[in-house]
Amino acid sequence: MRPDYAQLLETNHLLQTNGDQTYWLCVTRTVQESKLFPVPAYMLLSYLNAFYRYPGVLKKIETHMSAEELGDRARTMGSKAHATSMWGLPCFYLLGREWQINMGLIRPEDAAEDLIYIVDFWKRFQLSWRRNSGHITASDGGHRTQILPERQIQVFHADMYDCESGEPLHEAAQAFAASAAQYAFLVACESRISMHQHGPYHLGENREMLVRDFVDLAECDLPWLDGVAENVPYTNLTMPMATEGVHFNIIDDWGSFAAEPEFKGEHITGVGLYTSDPLSDGYEPVGMGSKEELTRTFQDLDERLKDAMARLWKRVAGWTRDQMLDAGAITYYAIIKDLAHIAGCYDPDDWIKIDRRAERFRPLLNDEYSRDMLGDICVGSSPSHQMYEYLMMRHSNLPQRIYSPLPYSMLVDDDYAPTVGDVQPGVTYLDEKLDRYRTTKGTFGIEEYNRRVRESQPKTHEDRFRFLCEPSIKYRYDGATADELYKLHQQNSRNLRGRGAGLRRADIEALRG
Amino acid sequence: MSKIISDVDKFESESPSSVVTAINTAVQTVVRQRFEASGQNWKDFVFGESLETITEEDFRAVEQMLIDAGHRYDWSAAISPQERPDAYKPAVGTSEDDLDTFCFEDPDAPVGEPDGDGLELRGVGDNVVSYSEDTVGIARYVRSTNRVLKWLSEGVPENTIAVIDDSGGTLTAPILERFKGVICAGGTVRSHLGILTREYGIPCLMNSKVNGIMEGDSVRMESTARAKNTEDYQSGREVTANIWRVHTS
């Protein structure tokens, strides 16, 4: 379908939103590096894979579930469909596009219809996933990601256990968080995309809650976890964390945080632990029966993650460079793979292979070229970024645009190639993925996992509940439907089961004793 | 000759990287040639014939072109020069033998003579978290998987302050918890290594400019200095912690 002017205007607006954000994230973080993984090289390979495959895989997903519904579902679980994934969705595609423009391989108007679709999908998902704050990005919301509805925040708030420095629970939770973060970096080949933070949520005077997600921990989609993660019992873990005396002033679009004053372990005053996935219909408590049980659970998970980390590190240290490139590129490219799980249409061939059109570029990807090219396309140093000298880009004041806009002249001359076409066969240097996926309902082969997802309609997502948003609840909290919805979220809660929709934050605090 | 997108640019510029410019220019030449040979319109060529006629071999030849011209690529991952030693600069400072003579030599590192307390300034870094005490230990370089593997099986030597030029969190993943402190020559306080040392409560200075610290030196990190934050980076404000070599009488 030929794009019209309004579509191009909106697409270019969304490109600019993402471009400004990409620049800010990159200059406040520096380019990633590692002596273990060829990080910039795999990132570039992933961007090409995204350019050639995202249009096809996203259209396939939307034949099962719309972007808006995916956003609704993703809001109620701690999975790899989070803020970082949703930065990667348009930006990996756009970075692959920008790199190819600079090599003279494509023009900004080529694949225009793919581009319009990609950013439109992204917009619809983001507006849905972030509907409780009404923003499209964390940046748009002043670097906040407050996605949860009141009813879920109340459960986390009510059930978390208080702890303070020196207590066994405090120490166990901190040790777990450190191990989980480190394991997550290794699982994700040095990237941060296996962990994510959202919030902050206000718990009352001088107290805030940060919700921390650690994902892809067990044997799941990533072939390199087969065997080494056999003793990790949960693919996704979510740790709500209450703090006192610290304000999380930045929760960025990469899911990481900054705090004022600087965050230290001693600020943690309460913790909880949950798991979730497309089969769980919300968050299931893990080890939350008592403070002692939660302490033991953190300690047990800490040991299991350390064991898996040592085994995985040895596996990675024995890889060839091509295997490292593949693992990293797949980790990055597949940053949005959980959308396919939520829709019940996950196919490993879509997600853990390098499309043959992207594979062609592998010989270019030495460390130096990759490092410099990545730096160029992320911070505006490429020829394609340079614009008229009067322009002042947000954050830098330089005459640049990070992502080349679609030229409106294409509406007149019709001189553009609309699409890269369907997903094409891919290759991998890694071992074949075993057909084993750990979920909250057991370990399944992928066909069984997909079937179960497609057949299970989470109760909280039935239409009568799905659209009971926060403004609806404000005026309808005393109705039977609102009460039923809150009770569904409270069904696994130690302190709130059956309490319904009428409680406010002070009531929750009082209930905690 | 047919023109491609990069041939006409009112605001023409070059990448600050000569390697990027050389490789992209060579790729553009290949694209121009294949497009010319196709005899097609660009919009038909770009996702049609170009996908078959611009090949992996073309990209291999472009990359080899710089090596043939005498260039040796910088390396970042240890595996890269290990697999292609002829394509990369030598991997100095990664073997146990090298470490007898190797040290970071950042020309921007502030250095000084030993003061009355035997503290000799050898550099500065960005403090990740401010602690109540400075950190004193033995400097040991960690730049290879071999050293990590060795310490994974034999244990990390007591009081190790790891001196690293990798701001990532994976090279040292299985042993990071056992370091007394970390001096990292790259990254920022928000890099992965900064995040992990914060989680573990390990004093850490990122983006460190150090000069002359040798394997086995006794060093002191000013972990009590103010931590550098995002606003400091954004505004370009210098907020640093000192790194001293410790002389004992």
Keywords:
heterodimer; A: 513 residues; alpha+beta; two-stranded antiparallel sheet; 19 helices; globular; B: 249 residues; alpha/beta; Glucose Oxidase, domain 1; 2 domains; seven-stranded mixed beta barrel
Chain pair with largest interface: A-B, 84 and 84 residues
**How many strands appear in the DSSP assignment of chain A?**
13
Helix vs. strand class of chain B: alpha/beta
Assembly of the depicted chains? heterodimer
Let me know the average pLDDT of chain B.
Answer: 94
Structural class of chain A: alpha+beta
As a whole number of angstroms, the C-alpha radius of gyration of chain A is 23 Å
Strand order in the largest sheet of chain B:
1-5-4-3-2-6-7
List low-pLDDT spans of chain B. Answer: none
Give the class-level CATH name of the largest domain in chain B.
Alpha Beta
* Elements of chain B, N to C (H/E): HHHHHEEHEEHEEHE
Element layout with pairings:
The complex is a heterodimer of chains A (513) and B (249).
Chain A: H1 5-27, H2 39-62, H3 67-74, H4 83-102, H5 112-129, H6 150-159, E1 161-162, H7 168-187, E2 195-204, E3 207-214, E4 237-244, E5 247-251, E6 257-260, E7 268-271, E8 274-275, E9 284-285, H8 291-317, H9 321-333, H10 338-343, H11 348-351, E10 354-355, H12 356-359, H13 367-379, H14 410-413, E11 426-427, E12 437-439, E13 442-444, H15 446-455, H16 463-466, H17 470-476, H18 480-490, H19 505-511
Antiparallel strand pairs in A: 1-7, 2-3, 3-4, 4-7, 5-6, 8-9, 10-11, 12-13
Chain B: H1 18-38, H2 42-45, H3 50-53, H4 56-68, H5 79-83, E1 119-127, E2 135-141, H6 145-154, E3 160-164, E4 181-184, H7 192-200, E5 204-210, E6 218-221, H8 230-235, E7 241-246
Parallel strand pairs in B: 2-3, 3-4, 4-5
Antiparallel strand pairs in B: 1-5, 1-7, 2-6, 6-7
Helix pairs in contact in B: 1-4
